[in-house]
Design brief:
The chain has 172 residues and is α+β, with helices and mostly antiparallel strands. It has four helices and ten strands. The protein is globular.
Length: 172
Amino acid sequence: MSVAHTAGLAPAELAAARALMDLAFEGDFSDEDWDHGLGGMHALVHDSQGELLGHGAVVQRRVLHNGRSLRTGYVEAVAVRPDRQRQGIGGQVMTALEGVIERAYDLGALSPSAEGEKLYRAHGWVTWTGPVGTLGPDGVRLMPDEDPPMLRGAALDPAHPFLIDWRDGDVY
């Protein structure tokens, strides 16, 4: 297991992580999705021959909630090589990322895939039950049709919207 900032990873390591996303998500992981996982900390699990088995990243985002701006560690690009899934590798990745979140952020957030939700729940992540939205170029925009994120490490009031910073592509 290793943890490194995007800037500390060699181009070949980033290329291997990007290729893992294509393999694990069966081609349904866009360049925009990959871009969302860059600029933060990466957790990587390799086998004894140096082959990448698992990857995840946590990047900084801002959440506005109940009059506060919260520094949020947003988990992105979590994947395990398909032939090595259900062997604890995803758990290793999440444990490393959660350590980063606990030491550097007010809370953690992520947008789970259906396949990943069980892993996140096992690690104590909970689904946000209040309204969600974004603070974008045109101001606050509630997103009632958006799947709610999962959170870790914060007791937020679901009576107030969870507004995440705007970004191109999927906001959550």
